Amino acid sequence: MNGAQAVVRTLTDSGVNTCFANPGTSEMHFVAALDAVPEMRGILCLFEGVATGAADGFGRMTGWPAAALLHLGPGLANGLANLHNARRARTPVLAVVGDHATYHKRFDAPLESDIDALAGSVSGWVRRSSRSADAPGDAAEAVAASRRPPGQVSTLILPADVTWTDGAEPAAPVRARPPAVVPDEIIGEVARVLRGDEPCVIMLGGTGLHRQGLEAASRIAEGTGARLIAETFAARMERGAGIPRVDRLAYLAEFAAGQLAGARHLILAGSRAPVSFFAYPGKPSDLVPDGCTVHVLAEGSDDIPGALESLADLVAPDAKPLLQSSERPGLPDGDLTGESAATVIGALLPEGAIVCDEANTSGVWLPAATAGGPPHDWLNLTGGAIGQGLPLATGTAVACPGRPVLALEADGSAMYTASALWTHAREQLDITTIIFSNHSYAILNMELERTGAATTGETARSLLDLTRPSIDFVSLAAGMGVPAAKAVTAAEFATQLRHALAEAGPHLIELSVPPLG
Ligand SMILES: Cc1ncc(C[n+]2csc(CCOP(=O)(O)OP(=O)(O)O)c2C)c(N)n1
Ligand SMILES: [Mg+2]
Hints:
Strand content: 15-25%
Bound molecules: thiamine diphosphate, magnesium ion
Structural class: alpha/beta
Shape: globular
Low-confidence stretches: none
Oligomer: single chain
C-alpha cells in the first residue's frame, strides 16, 4: 500500500467514512485511494469553506469526525472561517491538508506557504507526517485527538511523497478518552448554592442542551426554583414537544442583561460565562451581573448531562422535568415578514427536522414560533463567521439521511458559500433552503447605531446594501440544479414549503422580507 491508501484505510477503520473534498495536485494519491477504499464516501465541494462547514455539520450530528480534504495553505485558508465556527462549536473535525513533497518545499514553488501556522489558528491538534510508514499512525491519532472531549479540529498535513510512497500499513484505531466525570465535591458545592435562598441561574451549553441534559436541568429548576438559560449560539440544541424548553441568552447585551438581572449565582453547565459579542463604547463586556458569583458545575470536556443528573438526584430527587407541550401556530395571511415567515415555519416544521439557523435578523421570531413543534435539532452559528449555514446543512443531511434539513439563511450570509447548493443537488440531499431576502446587511445597519458610528452618508449605506443589482436566488439555485421558487406572500410560502418538504431532494425558497427595523 502507498501512504494514501494506508491512511484512508486507517480512517475508515477508525470510523471516519465521509470526506468532504476540494482537492488539488498534491492530494491526487489521496483522491485515487478513495477508489481503493470504497468504504470512504468522497463528496465534492466547490469551495473549501463548504467542505469544512459540512464536516462541522456532520460532526455536530454524529459526534464523529468527517474529513475535510484541503489543498495546501490556500485551500486551508479558504476553509478557515468555518473551521473557526467548528472550533467554537467544539465539533470533532479532521482536516487533511495536502502539501508539496518533502524534497520540493525548499524550492519555494508558488503554492508554498506556512500551513502549520494557518492550521494552528483553529486546531487543537496538528501533525505533519514525514514518512509514508508513519502516516497511518498519525491518522489514527488525528481521529482520536479530534474526539477528545468535547471535540476539536485535528489537522493532519500530508506531503505528496508521503502519500505516494509504498510500504505503508493501516494503523489500528486509537481510543479517545471519554468525558471526565465531575467530582462529587463540585456537585455538592453547587447543591449547597441551590439549596440556599439566593436566586440562581443555570446556564447550559454543549451537551447540556441535548435531551438528557435538558431533562436533568429541568428537574433541578422544578425542584429548586433556579432559572435555566441556554448559551446564545449552541452547536446543537434539542427542542420541541416533549423536551424541556429553555430560552437562549439574547444576542443583544441589553436584552441579555435583562434576562440575567437579579441572579446572585450563575451556575455554568457546559457553557462559558456570558460576555458581550462585541465591545460598545461605554458598555460592559462582561455580562455577569454585579454581585453575582459564578460556579462551574461542568466544563465542555466533562460529562455535562451526567453532572446535571447527579445534581438533580441530590437537590430535586422527586421533581419531574417540565416538558414542552405540543402546540403550533396557525398559518398566517398577508405579505411576508420575518415574523409571518417564522409562523409558517412553525406551522409546518416536520418531525425530526434539523434546522441550520443562519437567518440572522430575520430569525428573531423563529425560536418562539417553533418551540412547541415536533422534536427537532437546532444548530446555530457558533463562531460568528457568516457563510456557515448552507455548508452546515450539507453535512447534517449527509450525516442523517432520513431526516429533513432546513437551512434558514439570510441573503448576505448565503452568498459567502452559495456553491454549497451545487453539492446539495449533486448528492440529492433532503435540504430545504429558505432565503430571507431583505436585500441588506441589516444587522450592520443596526450596529452602525449601536457602536455610535451612526452616519447618514451614502457611501456607508451602500456598503450595507444588497441592491443594485438585487440577487436572484431562484436563478442562482436553478443554475446549480436546485429547484427553486420565490414567495412574496405567506400563503405562497406555505404552499412552496409543503411541496419542498414532500418531495425528496434539495429545494430553495426565496422569501421577500423587509429588513428588521
Ligand atoms: C466571515 C464574516 N465576514 C463578515 C462578517 C460581518 N458581518 C456580520 S453580519 C454581516 C451581514 C449579515 O447580512 P445578512 O446575512 O443578510 O443578515 P441580515 O443582517 O440581513 O439579517 C456581516 C457582513 C462576519 N460576521 N463574518
Ligand atoms: Mg440580509
